[in-house]
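INFO  loader      accepted 1 record
INFO  loader      residues=254
INFO  predictor   begin
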Amino acid sequence: MSRIVACYKWVAEEADIRINADLSVDLSKAKGKISDYDRNAIEAAVQAAEALGGKAVSLTFGTQKAKASLKDVLSRGPEEGCWVNGEEADNADSSVTARALAAAIKKIEDVSLIICAEGASDTYARQIGPRIGAILNLPVITSVAKMTFVGETLQAVRKLDDCLQTVEVELPAVVAVLPEINSAPIPGLKAVMAAGKKPVTEYKSADLGVDLTPKTQVTAFKGYVMQRKNIILSGDVGENVAALVAALRKEGVL
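INFO  predictor   done
INFO  writer      dumping tokens
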């Protein structure tokens, strides 16, 4: 049975992130979650597996913290879970993550389709899908908003800046999907309970036989505060309108 692999990332919950007065970022109380966009990629893999008569398999690369994602991801429809366990994930750039995921995909039998989100909700680098395709020498389709299958042919609709483009490719292939490709459902209690019984395969990063040395290094990580301009306080409507017009003229809008 062919396997459709959904790659996902375990990221920090944005609502739990705190920015200190000196703009340093406090992640100490941030819980983990599956990247929002990756939830759509997971659902796309489940739907593709149904269309192809295959099996959806989830795959992630992360530290020990990512283990908490396994029950969550399997409650969303995949029949099997795979996890590359490595401390290298803490400092991984896109090249490292892609090499780790590609090495794991090579160990999964009969993979006909690899689905990633267009980007993760924390960095949105948009590199993982294309990098995996390059490593595995597979065709890649990005910015996909719709997928249909005819036999072993995938027809994908790409959403570009000012148009829609329809392309076809013979499987196996790599696809990077946009959030609008589907509406990712919230798992019910039955699905959550069943997830604990699904098989999970753990790969140790040291056993993959690939170099996981990052090519880039984060040198600083600070919060960003937007400086708001021309805030008009409450008061007389006429005065507010005059102040707004003056501000727009100052900015060159009028």
